[in-house]
Amino acid sequence: MLARRNDHSPDDLRRMALDAARAIGAAEGLRGLTVRRVAERIGYAPGTLYNLFDNLDALIVTMNGETLERLRAALAMAAATDDDAARPSALVDAYFDFVESEPQLWSVLFEHRLPEGTSLPDWYRDGLAGLVDGAVAALAPVMKAWPEPSRREAVVAMWGALHGISTLAVSGKLGLISTNPPRRLGHLIVERMIAAGPMVDLSSGES
Protein backbone atom coordinates (compact mmCIF):
# COMPACT_ATOMS: atom_id res chain seq x y z
CA MET A 1 0.00 0.00 0.00
CA LEU A 2 1.34 3.39 -0.99
CA ALA A 3 1.73 6.08 1.63
CA ARG A 4 -0.17 9.34 1.37
CA ARG A 5 1.76 12.53 0.71
CA ASN A 6 0.53 14.11 3.95
CA ASP A 7 2.01 11.21 5.95
CA HIS A 8 5.36 13.01 5.72
CA SER A 9 6.48 16.61 5.30
CA PRO A 10 8.23 17.64 2.05
CA ASP A 11 11.53 17.79 3.94
CA ASP A 12 10.94 14.31 5.34
CA LEU A 13 10.11 12.98 1.88
CA ARG A 14 13.18 14.60 0.38
CA ARG A 15 15.38 13.01 3.03
CA MET A 16 13.70 9.64 2.55
CA ALA A 17 14.21 9.82 -1.21
CA LEU A 18 17.89 10.73 -0.85
CA ASP A 19 18.46 7.94 1.68
CA ALA A 20 16.73 5.47 -0.64
CA ALA A 21 18.77 6.63 -3.63
CA ARG A 22 21.94 6.31 -1.60
CA ALA A 23 21.06 2.75 -0.55
CA ILE A 24 20.27 1.73 -4.13
CA GLY A 25 23.37 3.46 -5.48
CA ALA A 26 25.58 1.84 -2.84
CA ALA A 27 24.29 -1.61 -3.78
CA GLU A 28 23.89 -1.34 -7.54
CA GLY A 29 25.60 1.80 -8.76
CA LEU A 30 24.18 4.22 -11.30
CA ARG A 31 22.37 1.52 -13.28
CA GLY A 32 20.04 0.80 -10.36
CA LEU A 33 18.90 4.38 -9.86
CA THR A 34 15.47 5.03 -11.36
CA VAL A 35 12.55 7.12 -10.18
CA ARG A 36 10.40 4.01 -9.87
CA ARG A 37 12.97 2.14 -7.77
CA VAL A 38 13.43 5.06 -5.39
CA ALA A 39 9.66 5.62 -5.10
CA GLU A 40 9.03 1.94 -4.39
CA ARG A 41 11.65 1.96 -1.66
CA ILE A 42 10.00 4.83 0.22
CA GLY A 43 6.45 3.57 -0.41
CA TYR A 44 5.23 6.43 -2.58
CA ALA A 45 4.07 6.79 -6.16
CA PRO A 46 6.77 7.88 -8.65
CA GLY A 47 4.95 11.16 -9.25
CA THR A 48 5.66 12.18 -5.67
CA LEU A 49 9.38 12.42 -6.43
CA TYR A 50 8.71 15.00 -9.13
CA ASN A 51 7.24 17.25 -6.45
CA LEU A 52 10.57 17.05 -4.63
CA PHE A 53 13.10 17.06 -7.48
CA ASP A 54 12.79 18.33 -11.04
CA ASN A 55 13.84 14.95 -12.41
CA LEU A 56 16.02 11.92 -11.70
CA ASP A 57 19.16 13.86 -12.63
CA ALA A 58 18.40 16.46 -9.95
CA LEU A 59 17.98 13.71 -7.37
CA ILE A 60 21.28 12.09 -8.35
CA VAL A 61 23.12 15.43 -8.36
CA THR A 62 21.83 16.13 -4.85
CA MET A 63 22.88 12.67 -3.70
CA ASN A 64 26.29 13.15 -5.31
CA GLY A 65 26.63 16.46 -3.50
CA GLU A 66 26.24 14.61 -0.21
CA THR A 67 28.85 12.06 -1.33
CA LEU A 68 31.22 14.92 -2.12
CA GLU A 69 30.63 16.40 1.32
CA ARG A 70 31.47 13.09 3.00
CA LEU A 71 34.65 12.88 0.95
CA ARG A 72 35.56 16.46 1.86
CA ALA A 73 34.99 15.72 5.55
CA ALA A 74 37.14 12.58 5.37
CA LEU A 75 39.99 14.49 3.73
CA ALA A 76 39.67 17.36 6.20
CA MET A 77 39.96 14.92 9.10
CA ALA A 78 43.09 13.40 7.55
CA ALA A 79 44.56 16.86 6.97
CA ALA A 80 44.12 17.78 10.63
CA THR A 81 47.45 16.17 11.58
CA ASP A 82 50.09 18.56 12.90
CA ASP A 83 52.80 16.68 11.01
CA ASP A 84 53.14 18.55 7.71
CA ALA A 85 55.40 15.90 6.20
CA ALA A 86 52.90 13.13 6.98
CA ARG A 87 49.90 15.01 5.58
CA PRO A 88 50.24 13.96 1.90
CA SER A 89 50.32 10.30 2.91
CA ALA A 90 47.36 10.79 5.25
CA LEU A 91 45.33 12.40 2.46
CA VAL A 92 46.11 9.59 0.02
CA ASP A 93 45.08 6.99 2.60
CA ALA A 94 41.87 8.89 3.38
CA TYR A 95 40.99 9.06 -0.31
CA PHE A 96 41.47 5.35 -0.88
CA ASP A 97 39.71 4.53 2.40
CA PHE A 98 36.70 6.45 1.10
CA VAL A 99 36.74 4.75 -2.29
CA GLU A 100 37.04 1.33 -0.67
CA SER A 101 34.20 2.04 1.78
CA GLU A 102 31.80 3.46 -0.83
CA PRO A 103 32.97 2.16 -4.23
CA GLN A 104 29.62 2.27 -5.98
CA LEU A 105 28.65 5.74 -4.72
CA TRP A 106 32.13 7.01 -5.57
CA SER A 107 31.60 5.64 -9.09
CA VAL A 108 28.20 7.31 -9.40
CA LEU A 109 29.89 10.58 -8.49
CA PHE A 110 31.90 10.45 -11.72
CA GLU A 111 29.74 8.28 -13.99
CA HIS A 112 26.61 10.41 -13.85
CA ARG A 113 26.26 12.80 -16.77
CA LEU A 114 23.71 15.56 -17.13
CA PRO A 115 21.84 15.93 -20.43
CA GLU A 116 23.52 18.15 -23.01
CA GLY A 117 22.83 21.80 -22.34
CA THR A 118 22.29 21.26 -18.61
CA SER A 119 24.79 22.66 -16.12
CA LEU A 120 25.62 21.56 -12.61
CA PRO A 121 24.15 23.91 -9.98
CA ASP A 122 26.40 26.53 -8.42
CA TRP A 123 26.28 24.88 -5.00
CA TYR A 124 27.69 21.68 -6.51
CA ARG A 125 30.49 23.53 -8.27
CA ASP A 126 31.26 25.34 -5.02
CA GLY A 127 31.49 21.98 -3.27
CA LEU A 128 34.00 20.70 -5.81
CA ALA A 129 36.03 23.89 -5.54
CA GLY A 130 35.97 23.64 -1.75
CA LEU A 131 37.27 20.10 -1.86
CA VAL A 132 40.21 21.17 -4.04
CA ASP A 133 40.81 24.30 -1.94
CA GLY A 134 41.01 22.16 1.19
CA ALA A 135 43.61 19.87 -0.36
CA VAL A 136 45.64 22.83 -1.64
CA ALA A 137 45.67 24.41 1.82
CA ALA A 138 46.58 21.12 3.47
CA LEU A 139 49.52 20.52 1.13
CA ALA A 140 50.77 24.12 1.04
CA PRO A 141 53.44 23.55 3.75
CA VAL A 142 55.11 20.82 1.67
CA MET A 143 54.64 22.62 -1.65
CA LYS A 144 56.21 25.98 -0.80
CA ALA A 145 58.37 25.86 -3.92
CA TRP A 146 55.25 25.86 -6.10
CA PRO A 147 53.76 29.23 -7.13
CA GLU A 148 50.22 29.38 -5.79
CA PRO A 149 48.34 29.00 -9.13
CA SER A 150 50.58 26.09 -10.15
CA ARG A 151 50.10 24.51 -6.73
CA ARG A 152 46.36 24.28 -7.30
CA GLU A 153 46.79 22.80 -10.76
CA ALA A 154 49.27 20.28 -9.36
CA VAL A 155 46.73 19.19 -6.74
CA VAL A 156 44.12 18.77 -9.48
CA ALA A 157 46.61 16.68 -11.47
CA MET A 158 47.30 14.50 -8.43
CA TRP A 159 43.58 14.04 -7.84
CA GLY A 160 43.18 13.07 -11.49
CA ALA A 161 45.87 10.44 -11.09
CA LEU A 162 44.29 9.05 -7.91
CA HIS A 163 40.94 9.00 -9.69
CA GLY A 164 42.38 7.02 -12.59
CA ILE A 165 43.95 4.46 -10.27
CA SER A 166 40.72 4.18 -8.29
CA THR A 167 38.64 3.73 -11.45
CA LEU A 168 40.86 0.86 -12.57
CA ALA A 169 40.74 -0.67 -9.09
CA VAL A 170 36.95 -0.43 -8.70
CA SER A 171 36.43 -1.91 -12.18
CA GLY A 172 38.77 -4.78 -11.34
CA LYS A 173 41.16 -3.91 -14.17
CA LEU A 174 44.12 -2.53 -12.22
CA GLY A 175 45.50 -6.04 -11.74
CA LEU A 176 45.82 -6.39 -15.51
CA ILE A 177 48.55 -3.76 -15.63
CA SER A 178 50.08 -3.72 -12.14
CA THR A 179 50.71 -6.08 -9.25
CA ASN A 180 50.84 -3.16 -6.81
CA PRO A 181 47.82 -2.26 -4.66
CA PRO A 182 46.09 0.99 -5.67
CA ARG A 183 47.07 3.03 -2.63
CA ARG A 184 50.75 2.15 -3.06
CA LEU A 185 50.57 3.57 -6.59
CA GLY A 186 48.74 6.60 -5.21
CA HIS A 187 51.44 7.24 -2.62
CA LEU A 188 54.11 6.88 -5.30
CA ILE A 189 52.50 9.47 -7.58
CA VAL A 190 51.85 12.06 -4.87
CA GLU A 191 55.25 11.66 -3.21
CA ARG A 192 57.15 11.87 -6.50
CA MET A 193 55.16 14.82 -7.80
CA ILE A 194 55.62 16.86 -4.63
CA ALA A 195 59.32 15.97 -4.47
CA ALA A 196 59.86 16.91 -8.12
CA GLY A 197 58.61 20.45 -7.60
CA PRO A 198 57.31 22.87 -10.23
CA MET A 199 59.27 21.73 -13.27
CA VAL A 200 56.72 23.52 -15.49
CA ASP A 201 54.28 26.35 -14.88
CA LEU A 202 51.01 24.44 -14.94
CA SER A 203 48.96 27.60 -14.50
CA SER A 204 50.14 28.93 -17.87
CA GLY A 205 49.17 25.81 -19.78
CA GLU A 206 52.82 25.05 -20.63
CA SER A 207 53.52 21.38 -21.30
Overall 3D geometry?
elongated
Task: Determine the CATH topology of the largest domain.
Answer: Tetracycline Repressor, domain 2
Number of helices: 9
Instruction: Look at the structure and name the CATH superfamily of the largest domain.
Output: Tetracycline Repressor, domain 2
Helix content bin: 55-70%
First-residue to last-residue Cα separation: 61 Å
- Provide mean pLDDT, rounded: 92
Would you count the extended β strands for me? 0
User: Which structural class matches the secondary elements?
Assistant: mainly alpha
CATH class descriptor of the largest domain: Mainly Alpha
Keywords: DNA-binding, Transcription, Transcription regulation
Pfam family, one: TetR_C_33
Protein name: Transcriptional regulator, TetR family
GO molecular function, one term: transcription cis-regulatory region binding
Describe the model.
The structure is a single chain. With 207 residues, the chain is an all-alpha fold. The mean pLDDT is 92. It starts with 9 loop residues before the first helix and ends in an 11-residue tail after the last helix. It has helices at residues 10-28, 35-42, 46-49, 56-79, 87-101, 103-111, 122-139, 148-170, 182-196.
Gist of the model:
With 207 residues, the chain is mainly alpha-helical. Helices cover 65% and strands 0% of the residues. It folds into two domains: 8-53, Homeodomain-like (Arc Repressor Mutant, subunit A), CATH 1.10.10.60; 66-198, Orthogonal Bundle (Tetracycline Repressor, domain 2).
